[in-house]
Amino acid sequence: MGSTFLISTAELARCLDSPRLRVLDVRPWPEYAKGHIPNAVHLAKQETDDLEANREGLPIKIDKAESLFGGLGIDHETSVVVYGDREDFFGSRAFYVLDFFGHAQLQLLNGGIEGWLHERRGLAREIPQVLPKSFIAQTKPSFIATTELVKDHLGDLAWVIIDCRDEKRYRGTDQRVIRAGHIPEAVNLDADRLFTYGERQIFKNQDELLQLFAEHGITRDKEIVTYCTTGGSRSPAAYLALRLLGFPKVRVYDAGWVEWGNNLALSVTE
Q1: How far apart are CA 98 and CA 138, in angstroms?
Q2: pLDDT digits (tens, 9 = 90+) for 67-100
Q3: What is the pLDDT of residues 118-155, one digit of tens each?
Q4: Which of 102, 144, 231, 247 is most buried (most C-beta within 10 Å)?
């Protein structure tokens, strides 16, 4: 299945018939229904986020994770590949949630469905029948940050907070919640900059990513927290990029700006 958290379209094509493989398509249902990678099953992106659970230090509730992923035919022996499309980062979100719940055999399809189609690989419309399995959650609390944890480390030089939204939202000129701006001292690194764009969207290579992060003061020795508006796409993409580089201390502030910006007791910077 490959030695990293990314898998190429060619690698995936070679192992599509493996009985231990589960491919998850996280695009909207109408897109999945029009055509998907053969044997892929659909995972609705809204199933992978829960603000109330975020407040408790979880991406989604533990029982929900076990029923959701078990229902998709995943157990600890299953190799999982997730993919989305170039318009969003929902594949990274599914990767993050599975990673948080301790699933070891996990990869993202680099290039998503566009990469698959660019190489003229076939699609299927049949909906696979799935035999449910027993998914046992093994939570990784060090992979997530709560509001209290972020607040407690404001001003801590050993920590760096990455705002993965675009510059307009970071600067507060594009307001989506009660207050505009960003978490104090957060650095702005738009998640779009993590990718190389063309016929397909793929992560930049290791040297490019290391340089990009270093330019923002993001180094291996830091405790790193990524956030976006809801934790649903951009911050998990940054999380995955840092995991690809082997950074040892990376968390997603999963409640994100929806939680921080709407809490009048918390300070903001514009």
Answers
A1: 10
A2: 999 999 999 999 999 999 876 688 999 999 999 9
A3: 999 999 999 999 999 999 999 999 999 999 999 999 99
A4: 231
Question: How many residues in total does the chain contain?
Answer: 270
Question: Hey, which CATH number is domain 141-261, 3.40.50.300, 3.40.250.10, 3.40.50.720, 3.40.50.970?
Answer: 3.40.250.10
Inter-residue contact 168 to 149 (CB < 8 Å):
no
The token pair at 80 is: 């999982």
DSSP per-residue letters across the chain: --SSSEE-HHHHHHTTT-TTEEEEE-S-HHHHHH-BSTT-EE--GGGG--HHHHHTT-SS-HHHHHHHHHHTT--TT-EEEEE--TT--HHHHHHHHHHHTT--SEEEETTHHHHHHHTT---B----------------GGGEE-HHHHHHTTT-TTEEEEE-S-HHHHHTSS--SSS-SB-TT-EE--GGGGEE-SSS-EEPPHHHHHHHHHHTT--TTSEEEEE-SSSSSHHHHHHHHHHHTT-S-EEEETTHHHHHHT-TTS--B-
- CATH 3.40.250.10 assigned to domain 6-118? The reply is yes
Strand partners, 248: none
What is the model's pTM?
0.96
| Token pair listed for 29 | 């249902």
